[in-house]
Amino acid sequence: MFFKNLFHHKSTSSGNTLLFSIIIAILAGFLVGGFLPNIASKFSIFGEIFLNILMMLVVPMVILSMLVGISKLDDLRNLGSIGSKTLLYYMLTTGISVCIGILLVNLIQPGTHINLPLPDSGVSVLSKDAQISETLKELIIGNPENEQQGIVAYNLFLAMAKMDILPLIMFSLFFGAALASLGKKAKRTIEFISVLNDGIMKLVNWVMYLAPIGIFGLITARIGKAGGYEGFLPELLSLGKFSLTVLLGLSIHALVILCIALKIFGKRNPIKYAKGVATALMNAFSTASSTATLPLTLQGVNQQNRISERTSNFVLPLGATINMDGTALYEAVAAIFIAQLYGLDLSFAQQSVIFLTATLAAIGAAGIPEAGLVTMVIVLKAVHLPIEGIGLILSIDWLLDRFRTTVNVWGDSVGAAIIENYTKKKATSD
């Protein structure tokens, strides 16, 4: 018992040291990038190496963790239960986040009193119904013409090369179920896969020693690229009401809605739970990529917050792909903000379409930096808003992207705790 407590103390102390180092790296990055933008770009190599290492681990981690998680299910019927609960959680929280965004942007009205002239181009030629139909089609089967893949991949290796996580999840889901159905015959194979997954997690532990240096490089280079404080602060102030609306919405969703859900449905202390995934949240803010943060999210949820592999290895990879609460909120706010800039009044029906398409587009958004800008085109076209409006928020999107990605990762982590609690209840009742 003594050695166990001693080991736990050392692990906790090491985690606190790492978290403190990352916070220092972020602050230093803001200072160097802001005051010395010309020098800041030279540090980008550290950030690129760190991000590439994380991305390198994502594909094997997704496949192996999903296979391990599914194989640990005692009964394949539980797969349908945990899957339906996970999807329900993700859809509910994403829908709530969009509602918060729409409510705030209508109350604050950040784009009124500007009345920009409407451009000649940028209006969708498709009807609303046709646009939504196209969105669903691309989400399910992808778009072979531009090599965009959907839920079902036509080339699994291309999906790996392009980091299309959703088809990899679907393949792992069914392959894991197939292995589990083989019973004792697949026992050694499942044990081998489990060892490989443990090896990937060990790599993640090693990579974390590079985190402060990599995060410093990412933050410093990005602020330097924006021109330092002189470059991005004026843009931030000029779009202050819009930024305030987005940040307020993200704060309400993350600190109120998700924390209440974690306390009531997950039976966890939000502060302690957030501390357990703090490294992942910091990394999400630094990289603006929920996919690149997935290895650290799994580590924090498994090792620090003691969520079982059976739950986290299923819930988190899926969440990093389809659970984009922050992105959905941002896209809804941005679409209505752009309408306000051009003096366009959106009806309840049009805002309902924004609710639907923002939710669907966020599900289809890649977990990479500023992917929301791409899917925002779908939202704007659905209600016939000029896509030129995206250019008006481009200058500060990189900063807001970091906040919404952090909310995305927090939502995934909370989901793991909630699903874990409900699966435990079901196991007890059975």
Largest sheet: none
Instruction: Label the structural class.
Output: mainly alpha
Helical content band: over 70%
- What value does the average pLDDT take? 81
Instruction: Report the CATH superfamily.
Output: Sodium:dicarboxylate symporter
CATH fold topology: Proton glutamate symport protein
The ordered string of helix (H) and strand (E) elements is HHHHHHHHHHHHHHHHHHH
Q: Write down the Rg.
A: 22 Å
**Number of helical regions:** 19
Q: N-to-C terminal Cα separation, in Å?
A: 33 Å
Strand content: under 5%
Structure, described:
With 430 residues, this protein is mainly α. The protein has one domain: Proton glutamate symport protein, CATH 1.10.3860.10. The chain is 79% helix and 0% strand. The chain has helices at residues 2-35, 37-40, 44-71, 77-108, 128-141, 156-161, 165-181, 187-207, 211-225, 228-238, 240-265, 270-276, 278-287, 290-304, 309-322, 325-341, 348-364, 372-382, 390-429. Helix 3 packs parallel to helix 7, helix 4 (77-108) crosses helix 17 and helix 11 (240-265) runs antiparallel to helix 16.
